[in-house]
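Changelog note: in this version the structure field was regenerated for every chain. One regenerated record is shown below for reference.
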Amino acid sequence: MDVKQLEQEVREGRVKPERLVELLVKLQRKLAEAQERIGTLEATVEELQKQLAAASTAKLAEPFSMQAEEKRQEARGRRPKKKKAKPRRRGRFSTAQKLALASQQENVFPEGVDPPQCRLSHSRPVWRLIDGRAVLVAYHVYRGPRNEYGKIPGVLGRSEWGLEIVVAISFLVFQAGLSFDKVCLVMHFFENLPLRKSQVDALLHQLARHWEKEFDQLCTLLANSAVVHADETSWSINSVWAFLSEKARLLFFGVHKDAQTLQQILDPATFAGILISDDASVYAHFSQAQKCWAHLIRKAIKLTLECPDNAAYRRLADRLLDIYRTACRVQRDGRLSPAGRARKVDALEDEIVDLCGSVWFAELPPGEGPDDKYRLLCNELIRLLAAKQLFTFVTAPAVETPRGETIPVPGTNNPAEQVLRGPAQARDTGRTNKKVPGARRQTVISSVLESLRQYLPSFTLASVVEEVKRWSACGRSCFAELLDKLNLSCPGQSILDTLLPVPAD
């Protein structure tokens, strides 16, 4: 019965006393039953607490032993191992999703086959640069009656990235010196291209593998050049060595700076040209050589800066600069015959003897400080003069570039030094190779791009991509065409595999 209703009836006098007594007896009976049940539950809880305490105490009191630990390990071993769920690749789209997102559709038919005779083989999404913007294109590749396939233009292998994107990335990394992070930012900002660091790494690796044949061709052209500039600087792995000629421009990253490496790059049995370099001992065995005048003049100028009041030091720097300038004028003078030019060189050599001969004949003992540097520089000049390595550039004939230009032989090694400025800056900022595969990749791509500067009328993204597409169309690079013109062939053993071998898996 509702309590409020009962209360209202009692106030109004509608409930008999007998009924109230009856209700009170029922409530007392229910209360007694509830108290009895509560007592039983409390006893049960108390018993369970005692059992739990006893079990915990027994477990804690169990002495540690090797046998107990072995039992625990055995028990763990009997448990079924849970299969680790494969990590889900985040940010990846299936081919079907990419095709659905494509903003442009193109059909690719086999060359020379009528489209009605073809049937659809497969579709592939490819990112392209069109009018300065990244566009996802869905290529529908058709197969001909003889099972021939259409070939997507400007795509390396089965890549989903156009050649123009891959070349742009390689230029930004190895020519502009940008990190992978900055390359991704640049491509997204200017091209609206969604690019990740892992994709940059994979694309560079793919391009390097694709250009290894062209790299071998450049090595052969280098060894058969008339004039080669050589210079090196330190790297995270060994050194980076630059070799520039009228036919090829190569950079070797991660190689040793020793005579063995130099012999493999410029084999004396093959190379018969002039080597322009500094006076490092590694270059000493070349019979035709031109030592860098810039290095010699800088040494003399440094002496004058250390001791500005020393007249002998100042005279050496001024005379060396005048002699070099005179030699350059003699080289450019088209009125001189070979014999007349040789007589001019003899006169310049006599000036070197007059300038440095007294110090050399004195045979002064080794010392310290600027005086010893002065002695060493004078001795170096006399030694190079005796080896006919100071004025080689004056009498040497001009060389022809792949574009048909005729250029004189330089008297300095400045071109090689300039091409190494980028790697030197990358080294100083920590953007170097940590392992051989990275050095090998940078060697191939940097060498091909640097060489294309010499072969193309203008070095732009469009011109490079167009040239590389031509290689795929005709099956031969511009480097291979020059080799054919010179009746040369690449050796069986790749220099790349010798100096930078691919590590075994």
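Spot check on this record: The mean pLDDT is 89. The chain has 20 helices and ten strands.
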